[in-house]
Backbone:
């Protein structure tokens, strides 16, 4: 038996021994620095300090009478502080002051354990100082502590939307300082996002976005564009043109047209060129500069297709240029070329003939089913595919895709009523609901 395991078993035995001698032994064991795994079942959670933590758990029931002795150990031993901080979450009111003390301990791992105990203690006591301390921990010097604090505050804000009203007056300034020191650390910027109405926070986000940092650009891009004033937009236009900032300028559209000359210079840049082209496409006043290259970009860059189609002023014209180029490669490049065609929806109606062949004979199944779904987008233009649909309804492997298409087509597919009624007589139970949906849509 290892030394740690033997001492751990001793702690277990002492847990039921209420003598003064046993209590002294448990208090002394709080400083045991033996490191190992929980010596129980293989799937039990690990203990970093199995002996010290077992001692702390054994002392939980006698904390009131031994409080001073226990806390004295935490002031001389990081191991004791770590273990006691975990144990204090069970102590209720007698454990509030000790827990607040451990939140300021010099050992970061002990403070991290203390953060984990703040909410359980708050649930037990309703002591508001515990919430104030949790907010304080958002600006802790150790990143592991702030990470834990951010997680706890995030979950608590769902129940207490006004939680941040308890924040110390200087907390935002301290968070701003941490973010400037570590601009790439998402933990600190998330902590700042808990104070969205503070003008200092928004000004800092703009400052950091202009410096090209990813998270501030994303926060502005997906939720704060309307708050940007002319001076702030101007600072972004003059910022460091990283890919995230270029994307943000595109989201601003013509409000960021002052950046257009710089974006035009980036078109050939291997890292930022595609983002610059998309940003210019998003600016109506600048589109003419990049529209001629959009067909090539659509064909060659699958990741940009959704954005190109959304921003392009003439989707039908784009379809006429790119569909003939994509169609011949559909069977050769699995899924990719077909998805490029499918994005056009009803605008791809001119490709119905080969889509019908793909629906009838396509391999693999997802490609064939995708062709059936796209044909359904054509409305009246899908009628030439009905012959293939009848054939596909005969096979259980393709029936679901066709039924979904008929639901989409609705009354246009009225000729299928009779065959669907027959199918109901022999269909599997799992197909009956979809057959009923198809019949209802057709008869609507």
Residues:
């Amino acid at each position: 038996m290892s030394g740690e395991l033997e001492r751990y078993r001793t702690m277990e035995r002492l847990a039921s021994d209420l003598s003064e001698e046993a209590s002294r032994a448990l208090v002394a064991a709080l400083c045991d620095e033996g490191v190992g795994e929980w010596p129980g079942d293989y799937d039990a959670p690990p203990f970093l300090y199995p002996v010290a933590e077992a001692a702390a758990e054994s002392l939980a029931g006698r904390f009131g009478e031994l409080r001073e002795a226990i806390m004295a150990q935490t002031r001389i031993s990081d191991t004791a502080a770590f273990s006691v901080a975990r144990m204090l979450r069970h102590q209720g009111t007698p454990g509030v002051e000790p827990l607040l003390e451990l939140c300021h301990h010099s050992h970061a791992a002990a403070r991290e354990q203390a953060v984990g105990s703040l909410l359980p203690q708050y649930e037990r006591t309703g002591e508001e100082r515990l919430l104030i301390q949790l907010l304080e921990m958002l600006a802790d010097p150790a990143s592991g502590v702030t990470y834990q604090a951010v997680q706890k505050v995030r979950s608590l804000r769902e129940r207490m939307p006004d939680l941040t009203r308890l924040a110390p007056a200087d907390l935002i300034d301290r968070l701003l300082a941490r973010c400037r020191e570590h601009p790439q650390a998402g933990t600190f910027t998330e902590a700042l996002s808990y104070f969205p109405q503070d003008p200092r926070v928004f000004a800092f986000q703009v400052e950091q976005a202009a410096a090209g940092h990813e998270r501030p650009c994303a926060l502005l891009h997906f939720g704060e564009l309307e708050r940007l004033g002319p001076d702030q937009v101007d600072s972004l236009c003059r910022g460091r043109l990283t890919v995230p900032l270029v994307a943000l300028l595109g989201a601003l559209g013509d409000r960021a047209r002052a950046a257009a000359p710089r974006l035009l210079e980036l078109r050939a840049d291997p890292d930022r060129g595609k983002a610059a082209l998309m940003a210019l496409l998003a600016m109506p006043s600048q589109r003419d500069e990049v529209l001629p290259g959009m067909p090539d970009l659509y064909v060659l860059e699958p990741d940009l297709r959704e954005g190109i189609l959304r921003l392009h002023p003439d989707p039908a014209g784009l379809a006429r240029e790119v569909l003939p180029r994509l169609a011949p490669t559909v069977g050769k490049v699995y899924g990719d070329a077909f998805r490029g065609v499918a994005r056009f929806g009803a605008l791809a109606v001119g490709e119905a003939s080969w889509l019908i062949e793909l629906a009838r004979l396509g391999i693999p199944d997802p490609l064939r089913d995708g062709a059936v779904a796209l044909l359904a987008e054509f409305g009246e233009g899908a009628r030439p595919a009905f012959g293939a649909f009848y054939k596909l309804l005969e096979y259980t492997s393709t029936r679901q895709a066709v039924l979904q298409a008929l639901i989409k087509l609705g009354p246009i597919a009225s000729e299928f009523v009779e065959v669907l009624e027959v199918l109901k007589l022999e269909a599997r139970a799992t197909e009956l609901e979809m057959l009923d949906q198809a019949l209802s849509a057709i008869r609507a």
